[in-house]
Design a protein that fits this description.
Length: about 300
């Protein structure tokens, strides 16, 4: 036996692999750099939110002070009270909540049914219809707003919530695409077994496909909530009565409440209150949201 093949005698320590140690150091350094970049980016993104909170508790003089005063000398909580006293801000929040809930329900009903049809049902022209539906995503809202206005005006739906609620029941192309991708990822053997047991198409959809697509449905609900909560164009076109305005139009009414003079602390307080529901929703549902996006982005 050559000396290069001899095993170390009892008590002898094996040689240290400096190459492996160097790789571990490089991986550790890369991890540290990654966290530094992520923390720096998170802090940079949190600065506007912090500035909004700080400004909402300042006086007008502290907002205009130079150099910048980052913290209020004495927090003025009255700014939040003034938001509800100067305009019907609580009514605006309630209107937005109602529109968001109805939008979520409508999108879940319409998008899941259409997505199931495109994913599992066979009929002539299915792929062509799906392509045409996806093509409508390239149309900006400004192109269809005038025809929609003329149509809803002809059936006397203006200044009501019907133009904002009824179209949601037919789904949207993006949400239908998400549902189709999720339903395509469900193994066909589950559907075949249910049909052998005598289950109808609607029962299969209701008891098999929907429970297995909860992350996707949660993602659609979150997106629908954000779209409805931040919508400005359609409420501006269809609504006329101030008490029916959602929070997006209510913020504009609040800005013009002082005859065009913007009171920055109260405006920031109102902005923070309007931002709080979407922020809390994403904070508590971010794991489901990310999981749903990942699952619908890969077709099995």
């Amino acid at each position: 036996m050559s000396t290069t093949q001899m095993k170390p005698y009892k008590g002898q320590q094996p040689a240290i692999s400096y190459r492996g140690l160097g790789k571990r150091r490089q991986q550790g350094l890369l991890t540290v750099l990654t966290y530094v970049v992520l923390i720096t980016g998170a802090v940079a993104l949190m600065v506007p939110l912090f500035w909004m909170l700080s400004t909402s508790l300042k006086t007008e003089a502290e907002v205009q002070a130079w150099p910048i005063q980052w913290f209020p000398s004495t927090p003025i909580w009255q700014n939040f009270v003034d938001v509800f006293e100067r305009v019907p801000f609580a009514r605006y929040l309630g209107n937005s909540t109602w529109l968001a809930v109805t939008s979520i329900v409508g999108q879940l009903i319409g998008s899941t049914l259409a997505g199931y049809g495109f994913a599992r049902m066979r009929f002539p022209g299915r792929d062509v219809l799906f392509f045409v539906m996806l093509s409508t995503m390239m149309l900006p809202a400004w192109v269809v707003v005038v025809p929609h206005f003329m149509m809803f005006n002809a059936i006397d739906w203006l200044d009501t919530y019907k133009p904002l609620i009824i179209p949601e029941l037919f789904g949207s192309p993006f949400f239908i695409f998400l549902c189709r991708q999720a339903f395509l990822g469900i193994h066909p053997e589950l559907e075949d077994a249910a049909r052998i047991d005598g289950a109808s198409t609607f029962r299969i959809f209701l008891q098999i496909f929907l429970p297995l697509s909860v992350p996707t449905l949660s993602t659609i609900a979150i997106f629908a909530f954000y779209n409805s909560w931040n919508s400005l164009l359609y409420p501006l076109v269809y609504l006329r009565t101030q008490l029916k305005f959602p929070i997006s139009l209510g913020m504009r009414m609040f800005q013009t409440a002082d005859f065009g003079v913007t009171h920055y602390p109260r405006t920031m307080a109102a902005s923070l209150l309007s931002l709080l529901p979407p922020l809390l929703l994403f904070f508590f549902a971010q794991r489901t949201f990310i999981q749903g996006v990942v699952m619908t982005g890969v077709e099995k």
